[in-house]
Design goal:
It is built from 6 helices and 2 strands. The chain is mainly alpha-helical and 136 residues long. Strands 1-2 form a two-stranded antiparallel ribbon. Helix 1 packs across helix 2 and helix 1 runs antiparallel to helix 6.
């Protein structure tokens, strides 16, 4: 991993953690960071790392599926789906990770917040999405 990709990964990780902390304060008891075993800051950092890791592998998964993304706007929908999936999985691991979401509505809302923040971070980092070549 070269230095530019590392900085991009770290910037997405930090932005995702900030979004989770904002969602915790914005949505009250419907989104919670931390429990009796895990502190809120640790839950935000670890959950954001997992979300960033999942998003890092989205282009490779799209390439392996054989789907060609012709419209740049479709990447937003793909990442939105990946964010919703990530938050949904993480909410089921709330006892371990300390990141809890009340129901599917707030899962979709947190996924939307993550997607908007990631889009803005991508624009600031001048990241252009393209489907990588699938390895045979």
């Amino acid at each position: 991993m070269d230095q530019k990709k590392l900085v991009q990964f770290l910037s997405f990780w930090v932005v995702n953690a900030i979004v989770l902390i904002i969602a915790d304060s914005l949505f009250g008891i419907n989104v919670e960071l931390g429990n009796d075993k895990v502190s809120g800051s640790f839950a935000a950092v670890v959950s954001a790392l997992i979300i960033t890791g999942v998003n890092y592998f989205v282009p490779q998964a799209v390439a392996k599926s054989g789907y060609k993304v012709k419209d740049q706007r479709l990447w937003g929908v793909i990442y939105y789906g990946a964010n919703i999936f990530s938050v949904w999985v993480l909410k089921h691991l709330a006892l371990i990770l300390g990141f809890g979401v009340a129901n599917l509505l707030f899962t979709v809302l947190v996924g939307a917040l993550l997607s908007v923040a990631q889009y803005a971070t991508g624009k600031l980092n001048k990241i252009e999405m393209e489907t990588p070549k699938a390895k045979k």
